[in-house]
Amino acid sequence: MNQALQGMKVIDLSQVLAGPYCTMVLGDMGADVIKIEKYPNGDDTRAMGPFHNNESHMYMMVNRNKRGMCLNVKKEEGRDILYELVKKADVFVENFRPGVAKKLGIDYDTLKELNPALIYCSISGYGQTGPYRNKGGFDIMAQGLSGLMEMTGEQGGKPVKVGIAIHDLAAAQTAIQSILTSYIYRLKTGKGQYIDVSLVDSGLAWTVWEAAAYFGSRQVAGKTGTAHRAAAPYQGFKTKDGFILIGAANQKLWETFCLHVVDRPNWMEDPRYLTNSLRTLHLKELEKDIEEILSKRDSVYWLELLEQHGIPCGPIYTYNQTLSDPHILEREMILEYVHPAAGAVKTLGFPAKFSETPGELTKPAPLLGQHNEEVLLETGYSSGDYKRLKQESVLN
């Protein structure tokens, strides 16, 4: 099958989530990704459960479509192997704390001497510059600094972490788009470049509505539960047997909701609810009024009625319900591959559906050091070199 990034060679020295997710997507699109794990135990997620035949499912989720090496780059011969790989690479991804790559002799200034066309992407908590550059930065710290935790949850409640590692994934997406942008630039000019991506910057860049409110009126985003900051009704509402989501977020939908769903035409004349802005100002009153009606019937009744009248709505699922939903399954968002040690492994599918160059599962996540010899032979080393390097603790 033809894939968009066939021919791109990626050297991946990242671990855990942001970097591996970035390189997984490049691999899904056809790039030859060589994941180089630290000697001797590999990526930290290999030690995180759940496990299948001693293989971490977390590791397998974000390291599919890669070949794997376990290389001791602290040793001179380990660095020399990496240098040989870099000479033929298009992209290099790492997520060391700033300064570590330079100490190891694998920083951008060193590697661009070997390959001036190299696209080198560093992913870190706070970036390569600024007063916080040397701080250790995990996703939760980025959520705190970016303001996300203070705007997540219910009013009056404690700060709440977003349910997924949102800054890690934002950094991964930023790295993907930056690498592909740089790749296009290189195709035009032949020039490589350095990319500095931080978890904090990447997540902060997504707070566009909140920034607009602050820059426009000095309004500081606070907790709104499931509600929208600038549209109502647009949130979760309690029914007789649970919660549903309703998005009557413009005037036409609001009027349809009043007339045909809750049978409250008088709300269209209520001075509190005349416009979207007024409804947002009186959100708690609106929520109480709507839930008083919704609490009389089950969720399925209201969802069917809302759908009938063209008002965006939906359930609030538990995650196991999500993964068994017929729409999710038909969209092929759950795939399965066979891993050499773990056997059949389920994984998430490809979110973008390409007509000409679709994503493809071509390789399971590698065993630790699985492709050491294969990659060495491609680089010009011999089988004898491989055996010697294993004995000398350069390879696992």
UniProtKB/TrEMBL annotation:
Keyword list (alphabetical) reads: Transferase
Annotated signal sequence is none
One Pfam family of this chain: CoA_transf_3
- Kindly provide the name given to this protein in its UniProt entry: Crotonobetainyl-CoA:carnitine CoA-transferase CaiB-like acyl-CoA transferase
Originating species = Siminovitchia thermophila
Q: What is the lineage of its organism?
A: Bacteria, Bacillati, Bacillota, Bacilli, Bacillales
